[in-house]
Amino acid sequence: MQNIVVHIPHKGKESTVLNSKQTWNQPNQEWCAKQYAHLIIQEYRDRFPQAIALLEEGLEDSLQFLAFPHLDQRKISSTNSLERIHKEIRRRTRVVGIFPTTDSYLRLVTSYLIEYTEDWMSSKKYISSEAITEQQAELLKIA
Predict the structure, then answer these.
(1) pTM given for the model
(2) Which positions carry the signal peptide feature in this UniProt record (predicted)?
(3) 83-132 confidence digits (pLDDT tens)
């Protein structure tokens, strides 16, 4: 969404953003979300051609989270957890400054990721393992 908003003038941002955000709030990928996105595309194509071109290009990818109904869609549609991991890696590597070798950098990053994984597996779960297991079982039924 941020990439699209960059190509919209300040005057038209508020209404355009509010309308286009509704695309990702639709309950069903195949029907509602895609249909709503096409309505937005038709409405704003002439006013904001660059923004609409980006929307059309990334629409399928941006709606993939709707294919997982058993998982909390707010969590899997966001990149917040990934951004948090990157921020923590940057913080830890900034303390060291210059690494003597690439292997030392990889050891530091790997040790943090192992620690993060252990925390996720034991207590601090962003998405519960039960929800993931349930989603996997449903996917196996379909395949």
Answers:
(1) 0.51
(2) none
(3) 889 999 999 999 988 999 999 999 999 999 999 888 777 776 666 667 77
Question: pLDDT tens digits for 92-101?
Answer: 999 988 999 9
131 shares a domain with 92? yes
Instruction: Please indicate, yes or no, whether residues 79 and 37 belong to a single structural domain of this protein.
Output: no
Verify that 90 and 124 share a domain, yes or no.
Answer: yes
**Gyration radius of the chain's alpha carbons:** 20
Sign of CA dihedral 62, 37, 25, 55: positive
Q: Left, alpha or beta for 25 (phi > 0: left; psi -120 to 50: alpha)?
A: alpha
